[in-house]
Amino acid sequence: MACFIILRGPAAVGKTTVAKALTASLHAKHVAFDKIMANHKLDAIEGSGISASNFLKANKLVVPIALKELELGRSVVFDGCFYRKRQLDNLIKSLPYKHFIFALNAPLKECLKRNNNRKNPLRKKDIAQVYALTKKIIAGVRIDTTGKVTNELVKEIKSHLRLG
Q: Which residue from 11, 4, 13 is spatially nearest to 144, judged by alpha carbons?
């Protein structure tokens, strides 16, 4: 049975790495919100982060892609910060399929450390800002990524999926 899975959480917590591995494991479609936002110039940080309206515009771009996959019986894995409740609610409302939300988590110190290992690291203040914004939204099964390898995280996430 097709479903969509949202992996949300702060920058540098491991969302994309886990999403790619989960996607491969489930033979699903991966949709990276960071790429969608950047490719459509919707990732401008204004005041307290990216505006809810820009996230909603990104939703409009991904919903047709997801619906096509879901209608074919293929699951979809989204990864993004999802720190605007309106974006999360809108995406869920727009896709009338079973869904799961996982909130990936790690201490800020860990996210900053991981960010330093990125090819193109974000600024420390941006990591801290996104971290604070994601903590304001309580949504999804919390998964602590600290000290865990990708395969462990995929196994943990899959243990929560009930697709029957």
A: 13
Closest by CA position to 127, among listed 38, 9, 18: 9
Instruction: Give the chain's domains with CATH numbers.
Output: 4-158 (3.40.50.300)
Encode pLDDT of 73-88 as tens digits.
999 999 999 999 999 9
Contact 8, 138 (CB under 8 A): no
Residues comprising the chain, all counted: 164
Query: Beta strand 29-32 with 76-80: parallel, antiparallel or unpaired?
Result: parallel
* Ranges 45-54, 84-93, 113-122, 128-137, most confident: 84-93
Q: What distance in Å separates the CA atoms of residue 64 and residue 61, rounded to the nearest whole number?
A: 7
- Indicate the DSSP class of residue 97: S
First CA to last CA across the chain, in angstroms? 7
For helices 150-158 and 15-26, the axis angle rounded to 10 degrees is 60
